[in-house]
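During the reporting period the student researcher (J.K.) took over the structure-prediction task from the postdoctoral fellow and processed the backlog of single-chain submissions. One of the processed entries is reproduced below for the supervisory committee.
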Amino acid sequence: MVPTDRLLAFAAMSFLLIVVPGPSVLFVIGRALAQGRRAALTTVAGNTVGAYVLVLAVAFGVGSIVERSVLVFTTLKLAGAAYLVYLGVKAWRGRGSLRAAFAEDVTAAAGHGGLRTFWEGFAVGVTNPKTIVFFAAVLPQFVDRGEGHVAAQMLLLGLVFNVIALVSDAVWGLVAATARGWFARSPRRLSLVGGVGGLTMIGLGVTVAVTGRKD
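J.K. obtained the following structure tokens:
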């Protein structure tokens, strides 16, 4: 079991990292503005699962490969960036159809669309450079190897991180979705919010692509 002092210290560091908007938060905000509360929360769920896959990778040794290899890190980073730009362009091109989306029946909007949104959030979460580096470089430092069960300790620490991220990202998404409601009262505002959501994701993708690493 992770000592309480280390667990609290890790939770504090995680909170500081999470509350500063990064790729995941900005993606959720973009989704909330473009598609609303349901899409934002579904994205948060996918994002959280994707981030925990990174925890599993670090706990069982794969994360160290990503951290040591510039090639692997860069490939993963560019893949995530390209995906964000693709989603942003898609949102931008579809900004004029947001009015119809608001009128759709909630039941009809669920299903495949929700699943697709979940997996898009997952893709962003599992390719988030900030999270990859944090888990690979910081997570192992809070493990007490004298206590044994190193992998289990990492999984617990990762769970703490993801719970904090889940709450924080959900709040960001709900706030953005609430602001979106104001835009929904005007077709022109709807087009604007779709464009902002798309441009946010495109800008995020470009930012991720040019993010370097200190080695």
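The committee noted the following: Residues 103-112 have pLDDT under 50 and may be disordered.
J.K. will present the remaining backlog at the next meeting.
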